[in-house]
Design brief:
homodimer; 135 residues; mainly alpha; 2 strands; 67% helix; DNA-binding
Chain lengths: 135, 135
DNA sequence: CTAGAATTTGGAGCGTGCTCGAAGTCAAGG
DNA sequence: CCTTGACTTCGAGCACGCTCCAAATTCTAG
């Protein structure tokens, strides 16, 4: 299929598809027409989707490239692929925990402001407790 | 306290502290010595920590600036602060969900590679199922 | 008072991940 | 065949969030 359809079906732009290819994120060279235009197959599409999911978890491009290189190299380096993924999982979990932790602050702020808005709507009287709770 | 100590106690670099100030993330102007050097107080420190937590959840600098402006403007805009935080919470939760969802892929890959590594260590025999499971 | 460490400013530089522009080539319908 | 739109490459540009530099000034310990 054309690059446009691939872009449509994977949800990434054609620019990004070409960028990913330049960046070395492909496992096998993308098929081309005799005129030089890219023709993607289902397998290419699946791989691109994997890339987008790894990106969505914050894996940097260069790590995905490394992973693509390992996959391209064929069987025999599962140990390294495993290490790569495990390291990334540690990162992701840490980030997840950090976000969840700090989400509590946001929840708290929302509670506070909800209270203030209700009080304000009721009688425009409140004490801005900036000294104990900045913001 | 000095900028260096503030940096130490908040975990952000002195460069970043100055950058945040330039970017309009402060609620009130930072106190200065007669010579012009910054002197941070506990309240400044608390606000900086809030900023770092918002940053940690992915809130962009310009949103934090907007929030700081609202806080600086004093009581009366709780509605807007609330809207800002609620919008951000929606973002954060969506991102959280996306990460968690895609973490499953990583877990799956790890399971697969663990299996392959064990099999490989045992007898170096496996079928690289690239056609069904790229990567 | 003085030396040396810390801080100041404005602006430049950088890493990441796209995003786009220009100029030319290719593909498919009529 | 011809037109029109999609595609090609290469390199530049951009948004973001820092990070750093240089030269001047200030602070602090001895």
């Amino acid at each position: 299929m054309s690059i446009a359809e691939t872009a449509h079906r994977t949800g990434v732009s054609v620019h990004t598809l070409r960028y990913y290819e330049r960046a070395g994120l492909v496992v096998t060279p993308v098929d081309r027409t005799c005129g030089g235009q890219r023709r993607y197959h289902e397998l290419d599409l699946k791989w691109i989707v994997v890339c987008t999911k790894l990106r969505a978890t914050g894996m940097p491009i260069r790590s995905i490239r490394r992973y693509a290189e390992l996959v391209a190299a064929g069987p025999g380096n599962e140990q390294e692929r495993l290490a790569l993924m495990e390291a990334h999982r540690v990162d992701v979990r840490a980030r997840l925990a950090e976000i969840q932790e700090n989400l509590a602050l946001i929840d708290h702020k929302i509670d506070v402001y909800r209270g203030r808005v209700v009080a304000g709507d009721a009688d425009r009287l409140w004490a801005p407790s900036r000294l104990t709770d900045p913001g």
